Amino acid sequence: MTMTEGTFRGFDNPMSGVLFSNITNGASFTVSNVSRTSSGEVVNMKVTIVDRGRSMFTSTDGTFKAWLLHDEGAFGWEILDGDRLGIRYELYTESGTHLSVPTFNIINDIDYKQGAQFKFSGGEVLTTAPDGSGVERGSDGIYWDTKNAKYNNWESSPGGTLMAVGYGDITYTHYTNRDVV
After folding, report:
1. Inter-residue contact 42 to 33 (CB < 8 Å)
2. Distance (Å, rounded) from C-alpha 54 to C-alpha 62?
3. Against a cut of 0.85, is the pTM above it?
4. Residue 47, CA atoms < 13 Å, CB-side half-sphere
5. End-to-end alpha-carbon separation of the chain, Å?
6. Residues 133 and 160: beta-carbon distance below 8 Å
7. Predicted pLDDT of residue 63
8. What confidence tens digit (pLDDT) does each residue in 122-138 have?
9. What's 59's DSSP letter?
10. How far apart are CA 101 and CA 35, in angstroms?
11. What ranges make up the beta strands (E) of the chain?
12. Cα gap 35→32, rounded to integer Å
């Protein structure tokens, strides 16, 4: 898997990020200094690709690309040529101790028939979409956009918004379009 820093210009407002190419299952990287323990030890996050999905377009060269974008203290993935992307997030102290902590996750901009699914290694407390989100849990356990709407990031909230609370490692899978999964 190769990583290149750059600017994604696919939206009205360009966003800074990292372009990942040649994504393969099992590929991983570490984000340093994402938090600190109560004793002050640095916490790092290991990010592992667990399901790169399959090519959605015949014009795709098979290298599977995605942007990891960041803006205003948040981050998100933009899948360029796959039907889904499954990612596991694990926390470790600088000394290598694996941490299992509760997390509260909010994602937005689930639109155009996209879907999202959270799985927590230590157990799920709650996953819900607020009233007016246009996002509903399907029989497959995936939360899908049911309106085929166009949302505009946080500006459209609660439209396209999903919240998930749980313990332990997080496996988050984003689905590009329910009609191709």
Report:
1. yes
2. 9
3. yes
4. 17
5. 24
6. yes
7. 74
8. 998 899 999 999 999 99
9. T
10. 12
11. 2-8, 15-21, 28-36, 42-51, 66-71, 74-79, 84-93, 98-99, 102-107, 115-120, 123-128, 135-137, 143-145, 162-167, 170-175
12. 9
Sign of CA dihedral 132, 85, 68, 150: negative
How far apart are alpha carbons 15 and 8 in whole angstroms?
5
Give pLDDT tens digits for 35-92: 999 999 999 999 999 998 887 765 556 678 888 877 766 777 888 878 899 999 999 9
Distance between CA atoms of 80 and 18, rounded to whole angstroms?
13
Rg (alpha carbons) of the chain, rounded to whole number: 16
- Tell me the torsion sign for CA atoms 22, 26, 91, 33: negative
Query: What would the two tokens of residue 50 be?
Result: 């667990």
Q: Which two structure tokens, joined as six digits, stand for 20?
A: 């990942």
Spatial separation of the C-alpha atoms in residues 114 and 11, rounded to whole Å: 17
Which of 2, 108, 88 has its CA nearest to residue 46?
88
